[in-house]
Amino acid sequence: MNDQTRLFLKRRFMEYYSGHPVMGPPGLAQREWGFLFYDDVPDKSRPVQMHRHKSFNSIGELNDYLRSTGPQHAYHSAAYYQYPQAPTMLEKKWLGADLVFDLDADHLPNPPKSYSGMLEMVKREIIRLIDEFLMDDLGFSEKDMDIVFSGGRGYHVHVRDERVKALKSPERREIVDYILGTGLNSDRIFTRATKIVEGFKGQKTTGVWQINGFDDNRQGYGWSLRVARYISDKLADIGRLEDKEAKKVLKKYQLDSKQAGDLLAISRSPAELNKIKEGRLEIKGNLKGFFKNMLDGTITEFKVDVAGKTDEPVTADIKRLIRLPGSIHGGTSFRVVPLTRKQLETFNPLEDAIIFGDEPVRVLVLRPQEVEVKGNIWRVSEGVGRLPESVAMFLMCRGYAEYEP
Known about the structure:
It contains 15 helices and 17 strands. The chain has a four-stranded antiparallel beta sheet with strand order 2-1-3-11, with no helix packed on it. The model has no long low-confidence stretch (mean pLDDT 90). It folds into three domains: 3-179 and 306-354, DNA primase, PRIM domain, CATH 3.90.920.10; 186-302, no CATH class; 356-405, Ribosomal Protein L9, domain 1 (3-Layer(aba) Sandwich). Helix 8 (222-239) packs across helix 10 (257-267), helix 8 (222-239) packs antiparallel against helix 11 (270-277) and helix 9 (243-251) crosses helix 10 (257-267). By secondary structure, it is of the alpha+beta class. The chain starts with a helix and ends with a strand. Its EC number is 2.7.7.-. Belongs to the eukaryotic-type primase small subunit family.
């Protein structure tokens, strides 16, 4: 990015902030703040300098700062500090932190190649994280969480429930492990139970397998419910196959011929499949290989990968800075958009997060690109030309174009 491009982007960001003040997070004065600026010329010998250890006493101070500096990126701490401006973490005196989840398209297995496809996939995943794990399993309320489009390729969820504020990194890591299904053991999920059956010579008892985590009314919860749903659905798929092919598939799960035959009969009985969804397997024999395969399949299908590519996910890092809602993402020129759960349903980042307009801007495109904004796909060629500002800003922020006065 050359100097004239940096100056143009900085000026436009300053103009945007002048007319669009941010709201700021709760506990603003107790947050540490960090910024990256267009004035910092990149040095190949070291990474770009993050200007941090800043603090603001009011939302007015913060907005004045944004208007006067037009930062490329703006961040605040997930943590609350007694002295947020102090130069070391020890001197800041940590008081607690929000529980933050960061879900990015980079975290997901086999994301679509198109930008719009990635954004749609990651939105489905953040909805699952919120609805199935944070609200259903962990019991957080929507009123205690803020949902934010990151301005790039993902979403953040800030949980501000007082019960999690004091949690340290190990406890937060356990929450991540739960969402990832880390440490789930088939020996804990599946247990032997006793069933009374009517036989030729009267009643007798027999040992059967059941799924833990269901109450007396057969209401399941958490991973146990997911395991039951997965097994029922997987067996239903197998039941639709021809006998020979179905038994071939079942034997891959370390089952003998009788067990495969029993499971095939269950797979073709809606009543038996429904029992499994209620946690009642009622299957005999040594099925540990089958259970391990079913548990592994459940984890792969239902986990939400909030850990990302690093060993320490954002959720477990009690000192991490997170992008400021309402600010501009300097890598895209898109707005970092705060959302309600209802708004998330229909939110389209490539329309609703675009903040620059259609005024033509002259740029030098460095290589051919395809850009989708505001419902249009722009296929731009290498060379100098005029593009709508929304497209030009995206290309410049991504490093695909330079400003041409």
